[in-house]
Amino acid sequence: MGIAGDFVLVIIAGFLGALLARFLRLPTLVGYVIAGVAVGPHTSGPSVVQAHDIELLAEIGVALLLFSLGLEVSLGDLKPVWRVALIGGPIQILATIAAVGYTADSLLNMGFTESIWFGSMVCLSSTMVVLKNLAESGTTSTLASRVMIGFLVVQDLAVVPMLIILPQLGDLQNALPNLGKAALTAGGFLAAMVLVGTRVLPAVMVRIARWGSREMFLVSVVAIGVGVGIAAHAVGISFALGAFIAGIVLSESELSHQAMSDVVPLRDVFGLLFFVSVGMLFDPGFILRHPWEVIAVVGFIILAKAVITGVITRVFGYGNLAPWIAGLGLAQVGEFSFVLARSGQGLKAISKDTYDLALTATILTIALSPLMAKIAPPIGKFFRSRWSRTKTLDTVSIPNEKLAGHAIVVGAGRTGLAVARLLHEVGQSVELIEADYTRFSLVSTQGLPCIFGDATRDEILHAANLESAQSLIISVPNATTVRMIVHRVNALHPGLPVVARATHHDDLTPLRQAGGDALRIVLPEFEGGLEMARQALENCQHDPDAINHLVNEFRLRFQNGATA
């Protein structure tokens, strides 16, 4: 059947590999790579005949991966942790490349160019794996998690300049002119794409969306992604980079979310082709021939990435367990290293052994990633108990004497600040906890005591003197974070009156299960409805006392679990 038979074989093998990965509780992409090994030329059994044709189809997978990355890149994700992400992120990338590259050059005799390629592949972490680990642990909105997401966004964006810079390493004499030419070409292409993308493409997509045909909308999105990729290739820019630029341009459209939703299934299918094709080039005998080298390299990669990321996180002011969680959580090698590995292999910039070593390290570190994420908090607590004599926390206007009978407000956003100011106005001592450094800094101008840290951590709650507090108010909007704080407070200070914010009615039951009898829940939309009803009744000349009694009765029924 030719290419059709090979395509079917790859899809079935990928499906079986995904089932195996699911059974072993490993990331799906590990299963895809294993499937590629199974149908590759280095193992017995059914094999892909026209491997080159599958590799060409896999290029579409790379383009769709970068296209979807462009669609979902949000600089808003960097706002809470922009300093450590935008400054610390590039430092982490360069430091990892330097450390791994120097080690590879010195101990593995790779040579300068090949060691830089190897270090560049290793410096990237896996966005898919990390986000999956955070989602499964329910810690997506914690401070350490936001630091990790900031690093990941910067790393994903760094893939694009790497694809431009790394191929120039083989010709260092002409590297600067070539880079300048590539930068000018990419800049001109990007400017043209922005012009077309802001004036033409949105109008076309809106017209297609109005037709109401999901099929036409999907075809238009894919046509734009791969079409821009082909146009980029025609002017000397990589096909994948062109697709990324198309995604960036479309991300500014109001239809970007629907475009992302539609393209994901197609991206995943062609992504399967890509990861299987990566596995097809891998020789499993490499591990049998170099077992100790593989163990040493994997151990060094995990240690180096954990230390570098952890130290940078700590230097930028994130204390307690955040450096440990971020360091070990990002200690794996990511899926975009496969993109660099394939590029380096295609340019003959890296040898087959280096390719196999990078691929092996990627697979093993990704497989170990859930374990690294799980052991990070206990390891951090162990070392802190041994060597951390004092807990140094960034604070603003915190009194020297310990507070007692005070109210703790978690979150210094608009809601939290309003609560804290009102309490302060009536003479109630109050202390804020804020995990966003920008908001934390702004509190210094308000004259309110504040602790910078993650309120889901026991150390931060102890620093706020939770044991002697009279009340605690949780104003942050994220349901997972609120539930985790309520759970910790209930364990550390049972019976403490807690007022917690809920975003949706579905959050009420989990919150009540996490808290005790002293928990009170405020649903802003419900309270807004009560206030609107109260004012409407006043306008209708109803008795004010009767109105207040009715409103309080409704609120009491809500607090007792009645459906709002």
Molecular structure report:
- The chain has 564 residues and is mainly α.
- The chain has two domains: 3-384, Na+/H+ antiporter like fold (Up-down Bundle), CATH 1.20.1530.20; 395-522, Rossmann fold, CATH 3.40.50.720.
- It has helices at residues 3-23, 28-38, 51-72, 82-107, 112-123, 127-137, 143-165, 175-199, 201-211, 214-234, 239-250, 256-280, 285-289, 291-315, 322-329, 336-346, 352-387, 414-425, 437-443, 458-463, 479-492, 508-514, 524-539, 544-559, and strands spanning 395-396, 407-410, 430-434, 450-452, 471-474, 498-501, 519-522.
- The protein has a seven-stranded mixed β-sheet, with helices on both faces.
- Helix 3 packs across helix 10.
Largest beta-sheet characterization:
7 strands, mixed
Give the C-level CATH assignment of the largest domain: Mainly Alpha
Kindly state the percentage of residues in helix. 55-70%
Radius of gyration: 27 Å
Shape: globular
Relative strand content: under 5%
Spatial order of the strands forming the largest sheet = 1-4-3-2-5-6-7
Number of strands: 7
- Average of the residue pLDDT scores: 81
CATH fold call of the largest domain: Na+/H+ antiporter like fold
Question: What are the salient characteristics of this protein?
Answer:
Rossmann fold; 7 strands; single chain; mainly alpha; seven-stranded mixed β-sheet; 2 domains; Na+/H+ antiporter like fold
